[in-house]
Amino acid sequence: MPAKRAHIQTFGCQMNEHDSQRMAKILESAGYEMTGDPAQAQVVLVNTCSVRENPENKVYSLLGRLRSLKKGGARVIIGVAGCVAQQEGEAILHREKCVDLVFGPDNYFDLPDMIAAAERGERVLNTEWLSGRQKVRNFIPEERMEQVALEGCKGYIAITKGCDNFCSFCIVPYTRGREVSREMDNILREARTMLEQGAKEIWLLGQNVNSYTADGAGFYELLDAVSRLDGLRRLRFTSPHPNDWNNRLSELMAERPAICNHLHLPFQAGGNRVLALMRRRHTIEDYLEKVRYMRAINPQLEISTDIIVGFPTESDEEFAWTLRVMDEVRFSQVFAFKYSVRPGTRAAGMEDDVPREVKEERLARVLELQERITEEQLRALAGSRHDVLIDGAHLRRQGVMNGRTEGFRPVSVPGGELEIGDLVPVRITGYRNHWLEAERLVNLSASA
Ligand code: SAH
Ligand code: SF4
Ligand code: F3S
Which terminus of the chain, N or C, has less C-beta within 10 A? Predict the structure, then answer.
């Protein structure tokens, strides 16, 4: 009998990627094999994101295309998961007749039951929040704890879910609900399971990781405890919020070898009036002060960020501050977005008054400036030594492997014999597009 196959397509953030990895594990334990081709699958899931208008439009056009999978009465179950599902709920079932399941980020552990219902011909809507009676909850069900989100040598752990920040532009608090932190022991157990299963790098995930709090422990205590686990080579986390960042965390990052020298710290906008309208709860001076301190004690640190251009009422002068911040911090990577109105958010009550062309021009200027900074950084890296964690084979170049530096820069490394999870010392020889090129150095610790 041919194996049952499932296909998952994911949009959005790393938390959504994590949820998809867990869904894949649930489906695998129910006897499905994962496939990259939706036409081969009996279950097709789209894990959606609604943080901006564009990704949301993409989902509807994808669903339009998926309709054809059911042509001629083919038996395939189509499900919509994630943040658009949570937000639109029943409207998706009305709008797209081909959809059998609609379920939110809190409900994917019910997948086997939902699929069984769809096989009986039901159309399922499941967007109820897990009850949030306790502030601290271990939201990964006990029986799923062994099915960790491990891909290659990298493991992903959700330490919190939801967000209580309510930045005025952002829909996440509405699609993911109130913030909940898992207990530290529960997280450490998942981390140990991952390490036993071969993880070399662990990512701690949350919408605002550094507001983590459970049983008196904060993000500092959690990071400290995870970074000491045996067998862990690299520890990363995303995203921290600048308002909850402090110098103690910078110090811990600088002194603990396993914690990577890379921080993704979104600043969104350079103007204080705009930051206040965004409800980010910090000034740009606070942000820059924290960055100056962490750079002073940790010169190797690479910092990346998110920027929104064209927030309601943002003037040219205020936008110029955004460019000035980029010039000062010299980020390793910038994710920049044109502001888009999200229904139900506070900013939706403001007039979206920056014209589209102005937003586009500002976005282009951000990207242009970052391109120049990145080029200068890549050029300056020539000759420097790094350890690269190998995470895959180069798609086109035979005998070349891909990996990342501690600062999260992608590198191509010669050596067909290398395996995923190897940590190899290299010297940077140049770059192609945004990828560093490297030569291998003798691995003095290889026999250790
Ligand atoms: N929790 C993370 C951000 C998650 S959303 C944090 O607070 O840093 C990822 C990014 O999408 C945000 O940092 C922001 O830059 C962008 N974004 C969110 N809502 C947006 C909107 N309405 N319009 C444009 N960009 C938006
Ligand atoms: Fe959205 Fe702000 Fe929460 Fe990030 S911290 S998810 S931007 S509300
Ligand atoms: Fe998108 Fe939801 Fe993540 S809106 S950014 S998938 S939390």
Answer: N
Give the whole-angstrom CA distance, residue 304 versus residue 323.
14
Report how far ligand 3's centroid is from the alpha carbon of 152 (Å): 24
Residues 360 and 398 in one domain: no
- C-alpha of residue 235 to centroid of ligand 1, in Å: 23
Residue 284 corresponds to which tokens in the numbers above?
């740009």
CA-to-CA distance for 298 and 301, rounded, in angstroms? 6
The token duo for 183 is: 């207990």
45 occurs within a structural domain = yes
- Give Cα 393 distance to the centre of its chain: 22
**What's CA 13's distance to the chain center, in Å?**
4
Ligand nearest to the CA of 263: 1
Q: How far apart are CA 93 and CA 126, in angstroms?
A: 12
Indicate the top mutation candidate among 9, 52, 83 to test ligand 3's pocket, ranked by most ligand atoms within 8 A of CB: 83
Q: Among 50, 334, 337, which is best to mutate for testing ligand 1, by the most ligand atoms less than 8 A from CB? A: 337
Domain end residue (candidates: 129, 161, 183):
129
How many domains, in total, are found in the chain? 4
Is the pTM higher than 0.90?
yes
Residues 254 and 270 reside in one and the same domain: no
Question: Ligand 1 centroid vs 337 CA: distance in angstroms?
Answer: 8
Q: In this structure, what are the phi and psi dihedrals at residue 127, rounded to the nearest 5 degrees?
A: -125, 25
Question: Per-residue confidence of the chain (448 residues) as pLDDT tens digits?
Answer: 568 999 999 999 999 999 999 999 999 999 999 999 999 999 999 999 999 988 788 888 999 999 999 988 888 999 999 999 999 999 999 999 999 999 999 999 999 999 999 999 999 999 998 865 555 689 999 999 999 999 999 999 999 999 999 999 999 999 999 999 999 999 999 999 999 999 999 999 999 999 999 989 999 999 999 999 999 999 999 999 999 999 999 999 999 999 999 999 999 999 999 999 999 999 999 999 999 999 999 999 999 999 999 999 999 999 999 999 999 999 999 999 999 999 999 999 999 999 999 999 999 999 999 999 999 999 999 999 999 999 999 988 999 999 999 999 999 999 989 999 999 999 999 999 999 999 999 866 554 3
